[in-house]
UniProtKB/TrEMBL annotation:
The keyword Phosphoprotein does not apply. The lineage of its organism: Archaea, Methanobacteriati, Methanobacteriota, Stenosarchaea group, Halobacteria. It comes from Haloferax gibbonsii (strain ATCC 33959 / DSM 4427 / JCM 8863 / NBRC 102184 / NCIMB 2188 / Ma 2.38). GO terms for molecular function: phosphatidylserine decarboxylase activity. GO terms for biological process: phospholipid biosynthetic process. Pfam families: PS_Dcarbxylase. This is Phosphatidylserine decarboxylase. The chain crosses the membrane at residues 12-43.
């Protein structure tokens, strides 16, 4: 099993603490061991296989929490619960134009107020127009990790970042896409890099 970068800084202290506590206060050692195991499970990074047909795939595991029109474009957002994989993936193939970090609040990622949360916006140039992926921090997330930089060429389903402990990932579709092109519904469960969100 692969793990997202950064897991050691959370898991290692828990495992070291568990080893020490096992000799001093075994119940605490058991708790710290469980914490370390949870961290490894949370940072899991399974392989994914994008579908052969066309379509914009989900950038995250979770449930669709946002489908709305913004000016002339459609936004589809996926809320990641604590039980979901938190590695994010490119919804389409294309070149990274910009990667922009925007500081902000840390409201629950499923709420409307989360639109003002800390985020990283990744703009992609594609054959179908400009797509934007937004990695949005949640109430407990305190760090967004982007794996990409301007000029990188991405393929659909490629890893592009992860968010520590709870969050949301959105795709802002090009103006050529309309609401009728979205093939998922609010509340639907999706898998990063595999579930198609929209298709023209």
């Amino acid at each position: 099993m692969k793990f997202a970068p950064g897991y050691r800084r959370f898991a290692l202290p828990a495992f070291v603490g568990a080893a020490v506590a096992a000799f001093v206060f075994p119940p605490l050692g058991a708790v710290l061991l469980a914490v370390g195991a949870f961290v490894l499970w949370f940072f899991r990074d399974p392989e994914r296989s994008p579908p052969d047909d066309s379509g914009v795939v989900a950038p995250a595991d979770g449930h669709v929490s946002v489908i709305r029109a913004e000016d002339s474009r459609v936004r589809v957002g996926v809320f990641m619960n604590v039980t979901d994989v938190h590695v994010n993936r490119a919804p389409v193939s294309g070149a990274v134009r910009t990667v922009t970090h925007r500081p902000g609040a840390h409201k629950p990622a499923f709420s409307k107020d989360s639109d003002r949360n800390e985020r990283v916006d990744i703009e992609l140039d594609t054959d179908e127009g400009d797509h934007e992926v937004s990695l949005i921090a949640g109430a407990f997330a305190r760090r967004i990790h982007s794996y990409v930089a301007p000029g990188d060429e991405l393929v659909r389903g490629q890893r592009l970042g992860h968010i520590d402990f709870g969050s949301r990932a959105d795709v802002l579709l090009p103006p050529e896409y309309g609401s009728d092109d979205v093939v998922v519904e609010k509340g639907e469960s999706v898998r990063a890099g595999e579930t198609v969100l929209a298709r023209r």
